[in-house]
Amino acid sequence: MSTPMIVNRLEGDMPKIGIRPVIDGRRGGIRESLEEPTMNLALACARFLSENLRHANGLPVECVVADTTIGGVREAASTAEKFRREGVGLTITVTPSWCYPLETIDTDPWMPKAIWGFNGTERPGAVYLAAALAAHNQKGLPTFSIYGRDVQDIGDDSIPEDVQAKLLNFAKAGLAVATIRGKSYLSMGTVSMGIAGCIVDEGFFQNYLGMRNEYVDMTEFIRRMERGIYDKEEYERALAWTKENCKEGEDINPPERRRTAEQKVEDWETVVKMALIARDLMVGNPKLAEMGYGEEAEGRNAIAAGFQGQRAWTDHLPTGDFMEAILSSSFDWNGIREPYMLATENDNLNAVSMLLGHQLTNGAQIFADVRTYWSPEAVERVTGKKLEGRAACGVIHLINSGPASLDGTGQQSLNGQPAMKPFWEISEEEVQKCLDAAAWCSAKDFFPSGGFSTDFTTRGGMPLTMARINLIHEIGPVLQIAEGYSVELPEDVHDVLDRRSDPTWPTTWFVPRLTGTGAFKDVYTVMNNWGSNHCAVSYGHVGPQLITLASMLRIPVNMHNVPEEDIFRPSVWSAFGANDVTGADYRACAAFGPLYK
Ligand SMILES: C[C@H](O)[C@@H](O)[C@@H](O)C(=O)CO
Ligand SMILES: [Mn+2]
């Protein structure tokens, strides 16, 4: 099996986690008695996080522990300076004792922060936690509170499971915030077919995500193709790999509209070049500098991108579906690697939804239209068959030509179940299964100038989370989340429904987990409340992690099916209405405003 390629393709080192051991500064016995247990707690926390977290690009997560315990403002300041030098992107303060809040807290407004107040009673760690949070709340520095449910003995540096869960949730979301900061979203083209999600709102990217916006016209693809501004050796390798692994499926076009065999050969050559060029535009390619194209070699430092495609490109040139699908997947002709976050139709709100999902799960994403709600009655009417099992209450048809990653076939497995795994856990055999489960069909009528779309059906039984960021007038960004499962329909049922849609595109039959109330009253209501034509789908039930991340970015969550006990936001959110969690989220996000404004 080839070793997965682990590279940081973007500028800057990966953010580290700063650990702040805070202590009662009284010397003459008290501080001395606490030095060891306090530092040991910090070291245990650092060890735990480094052992259990990885960056989405596969690099290990590093923790930086303060040089000394922090008993006063000078030690707090020198720790902040050390963290700045080391590239710390989020901080976790730990303490088993009482300390002096205003003299020791982390006051960096951009730094996601949490405090673990050890639940021990020999020294009042929880008292510091409460007082320090009060300080943060008064100073407008929302902070996550971690307090174990069961009392531990002083000196016990084990980390209880409930504390572990909150440390991981906070840390992974905080790493996402720090990782995307300063990176670009690259628009290749502009607004596609009047889709509002394609309007690039620079205020959203700058003020909420700390990201930059880059733009390139789609003619840049023509320039690079016609002038050969791509790595020729890699192109030959990519084309050969594609011919070997991307088998053509049924051409459902009527004979008079079918591309000739010669045209299809040309189309494959074009779409493979498009994939190389899109990647180079996103992250650069030193090979281009060797060819004398120094500026092109730089790329746009894009951690996410979108390709307009329709219709200015696709009415005249082969569709970008192959480019989008293969770059969004965890593998290509160079082997197994981190997937690119590349949205079709340049729907940048969906690209960000994919990006957040990828940063939290490390996995590839499925970009899809939220196309059709099929009620059991409608399915029975058109197929004569009853929906059963998890699908019995209806299904949502997720389908879009383009960047549904081939990981979305569900041909990777975790404990024998279908999964979309971090690329470094995917085997060569699983890569081949994903490739073999997809047919590359000649683009249909929507795309009059050729290209190939991916036809596959996601395996059933995968826990999935649908997400979408929408921009709302006078509110700004809101996030919606639906945890659920992929389901497999009997082939004869699938075929009838699929053929009514676009059978040359990738299908995921999705069933949200219902709560019986509100937007999750039934499957129909979930779809009826979806705020856009698109969604981004991650592997696993990651609603809690998305909710934590959204609160760090001050993006309210308008819809989710996450149990209230799993919601983890800064402690101050409860001050906006402890008995009205959703309303409190909106009020808190509005009060604190975007993280970078
Ligand atoms: C090919 C079609 O135009 C699709 O791109 C269209 O139905 C969409 O996906 C709209 O989001
Ligand atoms: Mn679409």
Automatic annotation (TrEMBL):
It is found in: Cytoplasm. GO terms for cellular component: cytoplasm. Pfam families: Fucose_iso_C, Fucose_iso_N1, Fucose_iso_N2. Residues 14-182 form the L-fucose isomerase N-terminal-1 domain. Residues 183-362 form the L-fucose isomerase N-terminal-2 domain. Its EC number is 5.3.1.25. Pathway: Carbohydrate degradation; L-fucose degradation; L-lactaldehyde and glycerone phosphate from L-fucose: step 1/3. Keywords: Carbohydrate metabolism, Cytoplasm, Fucose metabolism, Isomerase, Manganese, Metal-binding. It catalyses: L-fucose = L-fuculose. Its cofactor is Mn(2+). Its main location: cytoplasm. Mn(2+) binds at residues 345, 369, 534. GO terms for molecular function: arabinose isomerase activity; L-fucose isomerase activity; manganese ion binding. GO terms for biological process: D-arabinose catabolic process; L-fucose catabolic process. InterPro entries: Fuc/Ara_isomerase_C (IPR004216), Fuc_iso_dom3_sf (IPR038393), Fuc_isomerase_C (IPR015888), Fucose_iso_dom1_sf (IPR038391), Fucose_iso_N1 (IPR012888), Fucose_isomerase (IPR005763), Fucose_isomerase_dom2_sf (IPR038392), Fucose_isomerase_N/cen_sf (IPR009015). Converts the aldose L-fucose into the corresponding ketose L-fuculose. Belongs to the L-fucose isomerase family. This is L-fucose isomerase. It comes from Paenibacillus lutimineralis. The gene is fucI.
